[in-house]
Amino acid sequence: xxxxxxxxxxxxxxxxxxxxxxxxxxxxxxxxxxxxxxxxxxxxxxxxxxxxxxxxxxxxxxxxxxxxxxxxxxxxxxxxxxxxxxxxxxxxxxxxxxxxxxxxxxxxxxxxxxxxxxxxxxxxxxxxxxxxxxxxxxxxxxxxxxxxxxxxxxxxxxxxxxxxxxxxxxxxxxxxxxxxxxxxxxxxxxxxxxxxxxxxxxxxxxxxxxxxxxxxxxxxxxxxxxxxxxxxxxxxxxxxxxxxxxxxxxxxxxxxxxxxxxxxxxxxxxxxxxxxxxxxxxxxxxxxxxxxxxxxxxxxxxxxxxxxxxxxxxxxxxxxxxxxxxxxxxxxxxxxxxx
Length: 339
Description:
This protein is an alpha+beta fold.
């Protein structure tokens, strides 16, 4: 497959779309030639200091403006400036574009179904199962599960060990806030240090399972509480990537007003802003207890779509076609215990 030849399915039009993978040739070079021939240099390149420097170089400096097109980036990537809270004239640097807020209460409506689980971000989504008895078993292809959740977190690893997961890949042009996918109470919150690998599909199909090696924040949410979504426990794993400086935890109960840090005891309201990636591309993974979620039929069908050129499908030898989903849109519904 040629560099950049990657497609996904647009949920609204139901059509296969070509994705422009920014910096694809550099990523392929980094994860093949440099990783294989200069492992020490590869370690430096995927470290936190270099990642933050590259983020500044690309998104805040005049060099980045020249490389990625500055103001034309909005138009080239199809970003709808009318959705933004900020005036388009304010979005005069790539960094400001990536930190933008949107009128999600208008342009990202919530489903009426109280049992709905919603997408935590604007992203390209896949789903799978951790149980080897499931036809959706994908364990070990995108991450080392024990490492991703935390090798010292046996309780949570056991909780989701045979469950399902949804993986969301944010690309640089996306709106970079994460929203709560469910309503519930935070019962654990912790950070795991790590690298800053790219989440480009070419990097993902390499042998390094980057998602479980990157710096990440894990939020465990109990939804079986008053006002909760009633889908059991959920783990929300927010993962940094190459050229991501940080993940800022800034939950707001109403729009973006009065943001507060996420921590144990906080009640998250479904669809509200929870955190922000700064900036670049990144990944979110949701884990569900076994048998507690029913994924939307269109997303299920899309993943097995024929004649869609997916780097992930080719790399892993199985149908793995992503669906482009919007934040706060339904990705599945809660299954009550015993259903």
